[in-house]
Design a protein that fits this description.
heterodimer, A: MetI-like fold, 2 domains, about 0% strand, B: 5-stranded antiparallel sheet, 4-stranded mixed sheet
Chain lengths: ~325, ~500
């Protein structure tokens, strides 16, 4: 009986989430389409430049479909997107889906690697600080994490490049050779991943520390300690799992920040990812590409939040009843 | 990335002996570029880096420009011009072929011109084809072009990327897989990252091509570009974006820094159609208020040549007019007062290029000293080209005009963003652009420079420099560029 009830709660939860997901996407599609059309700029003029004649501009506008009514263009775009056709990029003149699929692996590799390294650094540092609460080790890690929050990612990137690429020559200063050469690909991802993760993990380490401290004050931790379990076992098996709810919340928010943070990192390390593509497409007034990319980022962020909600239930069974 | 070096002498020897160059001795050049192209077809997109990579390397035109701007034979080995200057007969090379193996002949020339001149043409410089009345083949190796009116720049324009000769079979896909007749073939393109060209062994002049492959890497951030050069990931950065970062390269024995000129005149453009800039005294007062040396020192770290009118200092017909309005803040102040604009607010809307945004801040201070409140608005390029260029919604702006032979901008009438419409200038440009005699044309170009300076149409600031960083072993690059391209045929490494 209890399982059945929990199951229907879950179905209702998923239904509510899916409706929210669709509503968010519709809202985003309207906003991005309106903004791109209100924004001053003329894609044809951007492509043909200052020497273009009026008739060449008119021919290109016709060719790009810019002369169609706004509503027709909006519904044409949404209709196409629903059946998987994202349109043709105005400036690249190739299907937007092709542009995205060739760049997605780069950005996903960077974001996932960034997230993994962020978690590794933040959890170790946070638990270490909590275990050494009030001691020099705690002060030092908290000072470093404060520094990490204050340092902008692009500045840190430049320092890393100067040290590891220009002076020591251990790693390439930028670029991404593609996964056909896995060793070269991994090597070129190291610096961007570290730059991305150091700043992100600073925030998460602080959250981990305070959440762990909270748990350590609770009775079951004292009991575990009293029953003679090792400090390490207490921290990793009892404290961390119970400290996860606030950590997962922040991780969910950080994943969204990480995906958008790749825009900056990709520019500094000249990586051919989605971040650089969106940057360039906005400058070029490449409407179909910008629209598709903003939608994609929205999907990623909404999905990340959805996954976080599911994780809560996994981490803390008590929440299942409340969903 | 492997950099295998070899001596140039060996290459030359190997080629004279007819030996095939072994794979172990490949000369590979890696070039950094700031601007990433979205298309690889110079006949349908104005992005400068398309010309920089493709024109005269992958695609060829009837003529080609030398570093000094002189027109030289290319796909056309020679030409005859009728006495009235209206009929050109081009003799085509019989040794060229497209990279897909198809032959090059008069039909390709006719196709390329018809395509550029068609009603639905999207050629970014369609205007250069306007004087053409007809293009016809006299035989497979001879093309006759008839003009409606004389055009002094016709042969020059036939050497631009906009007039590249393309094949009918491949024209539609040139934006992604370019096919031309040039000394380099398209190798591959990872959008956002790199583009590779490989030597075309079948080119009629392959013996004088020293490089086996050329890779362009796209790096927009100046700090990242510096790191990539310093880490020796790149051999050359021929158009380096940041003059302030050049000092460390000048001090480094591994590198050679080049400061040449582009065709880009940087101007403080004024909206001549709009009060108070329709008043010549106000324009002259602005020219008197600005101090070019301060602007060049502050915005370009001293690495630019001042100009006093609208013509490049390296051009044959250049007149130095930088002393026409000596900087005199007190005099400028009095002139603004006399014109009744003292204390007025003027907007200075600048595009997102470092030369423009930095110059704007200095000009703002100089105008402020002369009693004018200039309000700087930094706008992005899409906004600039729509609001300022197309809608003429501005008081003043700063922009580089990078096309060669572009004094004709001042004869583009009231619809052009200058808002300048002067019958005398229109007539002068008409005679410049139809004067076939080079010496007479230079005299007229000098007259044009003096007139534009006298009218103080804009504040003429400086010539945009061509700043390049090269590893010592890279040789043969142009120091200055009369066009947007740089032929790689004469470049070597080793």
């Amino acid at each position: 009986m209890a399982t059945c009830q929990a199951g229907s709660h879950m179905t209702y939860f998923l239904f509510r989430r899916t409706v929210g997901f669709i509503a968010t996407l519709i809202a985003v599609s309207i906003v991005v389409f309106s903004v791109m059309n209100i924004l001053p700029g003329d894609p044809a003029l951007t492509i043909l430049g200052m020497d273009a004649t009026d008739d060449a501009l008119a021919a290109l506008r016709e060719d790009l479909g810019l002369n169609d009514p706004v509503m027709a263009r909006y519904f044409g775009w949404v209709g196409g997107a629903l059946v998987g056709d994202l349109g043709v990029s105005h400036s690249f003149r190739v299907p937007v889906a092709e542009l995205i699929s060739e760049r997605l692996p780069m950005t996903v590799s960077l974001a996932v690697a960034g997230m993994i390294v962020t978690l590794m650094i933040a959890l170790s540092v946070g638990i270490f600080a909590a275990a050494n609460h009030g001691k020099p080790g705690d002060w030092l890690t908290m000072f470093l994490s404060q520094l990490g929050i204050a340092v902008p990612a692009f500045w840190l990137s430049i320092l890393l490049v100067l040290l590891f690429a220009v002076n020591l020559r251990w790693l390439p200063p930028g670029g991404f050779p593609g996964w056909s050469d896995p060793v070269a690909a991994m090597r070129s991802l190291i610096l961007p991943t570290v730059a991305l993760a150091l700043v992100q993990s600073a925030v998460l380490a602080r959250v981990t520390r305070s959440s762990a401290l909270e748990v350590m004050r609770q009775d079951f931790t004292r009991t575990a300690r009293a029953s003679g379990l090792s400090q390490r076992r207490i921290l990793w098996r009892h404290v961390l799992p119970n400290a996860l709810v606030p950590i997962v919340t922040i991780v969910g928010m950080q994943f969204a920040a990480l995906v958008t943070g790749t825009i900056v990192i990709e520019n500094v390390f000249y990586l051919p990812g989605l971040g650089r593509l969106i940057f360039q497409s906005i400058a070029n007034r490449d409407l179909p590409t910008v629209q598709a990319l903003v939608m994609l980022f929205a999907v990623i962020v909404v999905t990340a939040n959805f996954v976080v909600d599911l994780l809560y239930v996994l981490i803390d069974p008590r929440l299942k009843a409340r969903t | 990335m492997m950099h295998i070096q070899k001596s140039l002498q060996f290459t030359a020897l190997a080629l004279t002996l007819g030996m095939s160059v072994s794979a172990a001795a490949a000369a590979e050049l890696v070039i950094g570029l700031q601007q990433e192209p979205t298309s690889l077809d110079p006949t349908s997109d104005a992005t400068a880096s398309i010309d920089g990579m493709m024109t005269q390397n992958v695609y060829e035109s009837l003529t080609i420009l030398a570093e000094n701007g002189e027109v030289q034979p290319n796909l056309a080995t020679s030409w005859d011009v009728s006495d009235d200057g209206l009929t050109y007969v081009f003799t085509l090379t019989d040794a060229a072929q497209f990279h897909d193996g198809s032959a090059f002949d008069a039909d390709d020339v006719i196709f390329s011109f018809d395509r550029a001149m068609a009603k639905d043409s999207v050629n970014p410089s369609k205007g250069i084809f306007k004087p053409i009345e007809s293009v016809s083949a006299l035989d497979a190796q001879t093309v006759q072009i008839k003009l409606k009116n004389k055009d002094a720049f016709f042969l020059f324009n036939m050497g631009k990327g906009d007039s590249a000769i393309v094949a009918a079979e491949t024209a539609q896909t040139n934006n992604v897989t370019p096919v031309g007749t040039g000394p380099f073939k398209f190798g591959g393109w990872t959008r956002g990252d790199r583009l590779t060209l490989i030597k075309n062994p079948d080119h009629r002049d392959a013996a004088s091509v020293a490089l086996d492959s050329v890779t362009f890497r796209f790096i927009s951030d100046p700090a990242a570009a510096t790191a990539a050069m310093m880490a020796e990931e790149l051999d050359a950065f021929p158009g380096f974006p940041a003059p302030e970062l050049l000092e460390q390269f000048e001090a480094d024995p591994r590198f050679r820094v080049n400061q040449g000129n582009t065709e880009g005149e940087v101007i403080l453009a004024m909206n001549n159609a709009k009060p108070p800039f329709d008043n010549i005294e106000v324009r002259r007062a602005i020219s008197t208020a600005i101090n070019r040396d301060e602007i060049i020192d502050g915005a370009m770290y001293g690495k630019a040549t001042p100009i006093g009118s609208f013509y490049p200092p390296h051009g044959k017909a250049y007149v130095d007019l930088t002393d026409a309005y000596p900087t005199d803040t007190a005099k400028a102040k009095a002139m603004f007062k006399a014109a009744g604009v003292a204390g007025q607010t003027m907007t200075l809307r600048v595009p997102p290029f470092p030369y423009a945004t930095r110059s704007a801040e200095i000009i703002q201070a100089q105008l402020s000293d002369a009693g004018i409140d200039a309000r700087v608005e930094n706008v992005e390029w899409g906004f600039w080209i729509d609001e300022i260029y197309k809608k003429k919604n501005y008081d003043m702006t700063i922009i580089a005009h990078t096309s060669p032979n572009d004094m004709g901008n001042f004869a583009r009438g009231p619809k052009y963003f200058y808002g300048y419409d002067d019958p005398r200038m229109n007539a002068l440009w008409e005679s410049i652009s139809t004067e076939a005699d080079a010496a007479k044309r230079d005299m007229l170009l000098k007259e044009g420079q003096r007139y534009l300076s006298d009218q103080a149409v804009h504040g003429f600031l400086f010539q945009l420099p061509l700043l390049g960083i090269f590893r010592n072993e890279v040789k043969g690059y142009w120091s200055s560029a009369p066009v947007l391209y740089m032929p790689l045929k004469g470049v070597s490494k080793g």
